[in-house]
């Protein structure tokens, strides 16, 4: 596979096209939507944290063990994992290219999947097994 080298002249000329416009737009929209959802869920998270302040483990398990709260937390974790992956992608794009870029993107995706699955699994364990 041959890589195209992007020069300063190509970037300065608005008539040249490089990159994948649809993927970039999807990434931009996904980052903004997940950020907005995170802000909305932050209110719920703060409510739960304040509600559980000073409580013992049994009270925490009772609150998080509620299926509705568990589902909301699971959705929150999934959205945060997607947002984290996209945010790290933005940073990694600035520092890597070529084969190393593909490797760090793969590692970034795997890390976010592992964190998301472990966190969602932990919440579901509390919901179903206490």
UniProtKB/TrEMBL annotation:
InterPro entries referenced in this protein's UniProt entry, alphabetically: SQR/QFR_C/D, Succ_DH_anchor, SuccDH_FuR_B_TM-su
A GO CC term attached to the entry: membrane
Gene3D superfamilies: Fumarate reductase/succinate dehydrogenase, transmembrane subunit (1.20.1300.10)
Biological or metabolic pathway of the protein: Carbohydrate metabolism; tricarboxylic acid cycle
Cofactor requirements of the protein: heme
Statement: the UniProt record of this protein carries the keyword Iron: yes
GO biological-process terms attached to the record: tricarboxylic acid cycle
Localization annotation: Membrane
This protein's UniProt keywords: Electron transport, Heme, Iron, Membrane, Metal-binding, Transmembrane, Transmembrane helix, Transport, Tricarboxylic acid cycle
Membrane topology: Multi-pass membrane protein
Domain of life: Bacteria
GO MF assignments: heme binding; metal ion binding
SUPFAM superfamilies named in the record: Fumarate reductase respiratory complex transmembrane subunits (SSF81343)
Principal location class: membrane
Transmembrane intervals: 35-54, 60-82, 103-128
Oligomer and partners: Part of an enzyme complex containing four subunits: a flavoprotein, an iron-sulfur protein, plus two membrane-anchoring proteins, SdhC and SdhD.
Free-text function comment from the UniProt entry: Membrane-anchoring subunit of succinate dehydrogenase (SDH).
NCBIfam families: succ_dehyd_anc
Name of this chain's protein: Succinate dehydrogenase hydrophobic membrane anchor subunit
Organism expressing this protein natively: Devosia soli
Lineage: Bacteria, Pseudomonadati, Pseudomonadota, Alphaproteobacteria, Hyphomicrobiales
């Amino acid at each position: 596979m041959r890589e195209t080298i992007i020069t300063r002249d190509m970037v300065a000329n608005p008539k040249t096209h490089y990159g994948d416009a649809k993927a970039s737009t999807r990434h931009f929209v996904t980052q903004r939507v997940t950020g907005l959802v995170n802000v909305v869920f932050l209110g719920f998270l703060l409510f739960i944290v304040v509600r559980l302040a000073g409580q013992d483990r049994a009270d925490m398990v009772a609150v998080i063990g509620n299926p509705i709260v568990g589902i909301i937390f699971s959705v929150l974790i999934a959205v945060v994992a997607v947002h984290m992956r996209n945010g790290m992608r933005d940073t990694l794009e600035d520092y890597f290219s070529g084969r190393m870029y593909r490797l760090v993107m793969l590692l970034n995706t795997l890390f976010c999947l592992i964190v998301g699955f472990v966190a969602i699994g932990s919440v579901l364990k509390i919901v179903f097994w206490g």
